Structure prediction request, 203 residues.
Amino acid sequence: MELDIESANKKELEVKKSLKTSLIGMGLEASQTEEFISDTLKASILVRAPKKPLTVADVAAGAGKARTPKPGNVKLNITALIDQIVKTQIPGVHSKPEPWLGVYAFIEVLRVSSNLKNVKITENDAMVIWSMWFIRNRRSNTISSEDLLTKINTHITRYERTALTQADLNDSIKNLEKISTIRESKNSPESWYLVGWVKRSYS
Prediction:
């Protein structure tokens, strides 16, 4: 089956537009978005092309039986994203030391790719998932719900940010679970499992 490169290129443009809009909304200058996306975000987002169905002519020529189209997919790798941010983060980009700038843009793409129109991503959500990746149990990729607010606030106050309330945290946990960046751990009671990557189909 032939790859539908045109659809893949269109999807890549949609992803890029979403990233730019989010980054600008977070305070990054428009002129800086291209470089930021290339250096920090590009490696964590992979767009695979759909496959076109065989035409009548293909089947007649012996290429095989007629098949339905196969959807493409967008693979979003948050593990790679966090690693890349740590490598490339330059303190004071546009006077913004917050390293979750790229995380916000990334999870907004994930929300859009998941077609979750009723979910509104906030900067708090990006702060929470960023913090969870640094205070998690690295062996199990989980984090206990016990004293989670205290742990996260201890981390974000390093960036001179106001501490979150329990209501703030609860809202962010709900959003992060809906977009599949976290889920309840099957092996660790009262814990959250941090999802390393998510795949979303498109056609």
Summary: The longest helix spans residues 5-25. The chain has a mean pLDDT of 90.
